[in-house]
Amino acid sequence: MTKLKYEADSVDVMRETLRIQLSAYYQNLAVSVFEWTGLPEQTMRIPKRQPEKQLYENGCFTLFKHPESGQFFMLPVASMNIQKNAYGEPAEWRAMALGQLAAPIASMRLTPENAVLFRNNDTYTPSKPYVETLVKRLVDVEFTLRLNINAQKMPFGFRSNNYNALSHKNTFRMLFECDPLLLHDDMMTDELELLKFDAPVIMADLNDAYNVYDQRICEFLGIDCVARDKKERLTAEEADANDEKIDCIKAVKLEQRKLGCELAREMWGDELPDLDVDLAEHVKPKEPAEDMENEEGDDGSARDI
After folding, report:
1. 2: pLDDT confidence band, cut at 50, 70 and 90?
2. Alpha helix stretches (DSSP H) within 31-127
3. In the CATH hierarchy, which fold is given to the domain comprising 35-123+249-283?
4. Of the four listed, 75, 106, 141, 161, which is most buried by Cβ atoms within 10 Å?
5. pLDDT band at 283 (very low <50, low <70, confident <90, very high)
């Protein structure tokens, strides 16, 4: 029983490890969609990915200047429900910090007069919760795929009595791992019953399911990940609708980021003259010539690509 519990724990550890790796993978993709420039050059440097990391995880962050140190900070917002204006917009908020500045910063009263709120979108919604939900489904698909592969590799099991269950389990493991197996027991009296599983091969369906979840995550982040061969099977209307959805997602996020940069430049003038954000080169809409399904060959004739 202890052995069975250990193996169950091992599977849980593997699932959690995969979940963490996939979560990090998609977060790395998410924070690479936008490029920030003109961050303040100061003693306590603001990490390059800090703005996007905060927007991805928390849905917003606040930019402000510490009155005593003169340093600019981009930090998560502790609470936006302290006070709101007539339109329901935050009129006062607090920031969260780590280390020695945690207490002094947490006590600061931040308002639109001395700080700027940057939003991930119009609703302050972080991207991470939705991505994490789909990542869990990806992990389920991955382990279901693993089980199906194992079922094809070893399409049978054994029924045994309790006295020799551990020995038979070790034997089964050796067979599963393709280890050389030689059994010899002159006193062997117990019998094994062979159980055939005959599991269907569903690897293609599972791979399709994995790709669907992956595509949903990327589209949610504003990344076009539809495979070229799949795009060629779409009608022009379907392809355009997909591109328009992704462009709309990016436009909403970019608008909010640029609005924050504009407010910051107005508030601090010469101290942040070049603060700006734009789409990274790899996610900018391609020129029509780059999306052509055919290109000219050396003789001037069209050829498939």
Report:
1. very low
2. 50-58, 102-106
3. Upper collar protein gp10 (connector protein) fold (2.40.500)
4. 75
5. confident
Closest C-alpha to 104, from 61, 81, 75: 75
- What's residue 155's pLDDT? 73
Q: Quick check: helix, strand or coil at residue 159?
A: strand
CB-CB contact of 75 with 96 (8 Å): yes
Domain boundaries, the chain: 2-25+128-181+192-240, 35-123+249-283
Query: pLDDT tens digits, residue range 171-200?
Result: 667 666 655 555 555 565 555 566 666 778
Joined together, the tokens standing for residue 251 give 């436009």
Spatial separation of the C-alpha atoms in residues 135 and 204, rounded to whole Å? 19
Q: Which helix or strand (DSSP H or E) is residue 43 part of?
A: none
> Which single residue is written with the structure tokens 């045994």?
160
